[in-house]
Structure prediction request, 144 residues.
Amino acid sequence: HFLRKDLLKVSLTGSSKVEVIEELLEMIDQQGLVRDVDLVRAEILEREDEMPTGMDYGIAIPYTITEEVTDLICAIGISRKGVAFGVSNVPPSTIVALTLSPEDSPVPHLRFMAVLTRTLDAKGRKALLACRTPDEMYSVLTGI
Prediction:
């Protein structure tokens, strides 16, 4: 499974997209899941500059496809204030799902994105934003 409770954060403290990305990357790095976190950070921020990942409904999915991971990894955080992800016509993002995918295996990334967007429908977003613990977030996101 792509989701882990130790990569879910109920209250991101960052006030910019760079700070929020840093917070989520730090959780991934603390679990030893990425080879070169500095390289991954640069890849994500470069992609964000080229094509911001803020979406409708307060969701942002910053990501990179990289040689620095061996499996699909996702860290998800909730920003209670909302963070602008560089797209002027969408609201600030309150749900941020940072995704790292291995270069040699893009299919799980596409599957995961499909599942995530289905899970984060209006009901799912409301339930996720009501969460107060990583366990509650995990339950909402996995249906377990």
In short: The chain has a mean pLDDT of 92.
